[in-house]
Amino acid sequence: MLLSKTSEYALQALIYLAAQPSGEPVLSRDISDYLRVPAQYLAKILQVLAKRGVLDSYKGRGGGFVLRPGAEQMNILEVVEMVEGAPSGQGCVLGLKACADETACPVHYAWKPLKAQVVELLGKQTIGSMAEAVRAGRYRIHLPGGNDLQLRALPGRDVYSG
Question: Among 4, 17, 84, 128, which residue has the fewest nearby CB atoms (within 10 Å)?
């Protein structure tokens, strides 16, 4: 609702990658199939994240994308700003050019304190904490078509699958 499709897909892919066994490359096609998002669109998003140092990208057999060490500490706002190229929370809720007291839209003064709370909340939620919640079964990513991303441990192993 408040995030673009690009930001939503980036966040879902990062949470998915963070919930996978550490260091194992995952193909962008496998991620897009699981998340049920357009493969080419997601591949471009993943390339942006790789160029920005969030992911490592490996070509060839056994290749794919891997979350770089420390990337799980990124918060939602950092990811949004990385893929959108602009500071998050700066736009008008009604889509006007600027969100400012000087150019207030009809909902500006009601939205302003709520926006500050949303920005604060998104700044506290990390990729790692959301991935851990997915692994523990406390959190699900709602996917198109009514499916949820919830990883389950494989019998007798500490490896997760969709």
Answer: 4
Identity of residue 111: W
Q: How far apart are the first and last CA of the chain?
A: 25
> Contact, 95 vs 89, CB < 8 A?
no
Between 136 and 7, the more confident residue is 7
And the tokens for 133? 């919640």
Looking at residue 25, the DSSP 8-state letter turns out to be -
The answer for residues whose C-beta is within 8 angstroms of residue 7's C-beta and 6 or more apart is 79, 80, 83, 84
Q: 11-30 burial by CB neighbour count: b if 16+ within 10 A, else e?
A: bbbbbbbbbbeeeebbebeb
Q: In terms of Cα–Cα distance, which of 63, 21, 12 is closest to 41?
A: 12
User: Does the predicted TM-score (pTM) go above 0.85?
Assistant: no
Q: Per-residue pLDDT averaged across 46-71, rounded?
A: 92
DSSP lists the bridge partners of residue 148 as 142
